[in-house]
Amino acid sequence: GAGVSQSPRYKVAKRGQDVALRCDPISGHVSLFWYQQALGQGPEFLTYFQNEAQLDKSGLPSDRFFAERPEGSVSTLKIQRTQQEDSAVYLCASSFSWGDTEAFFGQGTRLTVV
Amino acid sequence: KNEVEQSPQNLTAQEGEFITINCSYSVGISALHWLQQHPGGGIVSLFMLSSGKKKHGRLIATINIQEKHSSLHITASHPRDSAVYICAVRGPGAQKLVFGQGTRLTINP
To answer: What's the pLDDT tens digit per position in B27-79?
Structure first.
């Protein structure tokens, strides 16, 4: 497709379960971002990739969160031993370059931890 | 205090009304984005601006760098404009966006 694709769209996990969220950015986009959006709040930054390099992971809330983009295209956000506070929408965005360029967002993955 | 503050948090208006959503930020920026989010989560970029004013159809975005303030205006509002509108800023040399909490707009027919 032409846009940013995220899967799954919805995920229900039992507390303690590991989950993996996938992002397919627009082909050729160099920059890829993961954001976390709690209910009723604006998105908050998790991590940033430029090609395969993870240049900023300062927003990852704990060492249970891990992201990778091994070939500089598809990215996976992994959450280990999920907790209820991890329930949120996880948004992926990509842009053609870095700096002040338009960001294109995926539909998000809504994670519910029960 | 959040770096990016939006007002109002919620806005309900009648079809046809002129809508203004405000965004104030406390840090230096290289660009400000206005985004639209419909139920279901998808976010669409409306504007990216670093100075002055931009217009697209019924939407107008303005920014005052000295005042650290931006506004999003919608003329002749329509029920399909109902969505959450989010302001986000990027700092100089930074890559990530810092978001406001969003303004939920409801336009009644």
So the answer is: 899 999 999 998 876 899 999 999 999 999 999 999 999 999 999 999 999 99
Q: Is B71 on the interface with A (CB under 8 A)?
A: no
- Collect all residues of chain A within an 8 Å Cβ-Cβ radius of residue B48: 100, 102
Does the distance separating the beta carbons of B31 and A104 come in below 8 Å?
no
**Backbone phi and psi for residue B15, each to the nearest 5 degrees, phi listed first:** -50, 135
Q: Does B50 touch chain A (CB under 8 A)?
A: yes
CA distances from A15 to A9, A111, A113, B4, B85 (A): 19, 11, 6, 33, 32
Give residue for tokens 């920059």. Answer: A31
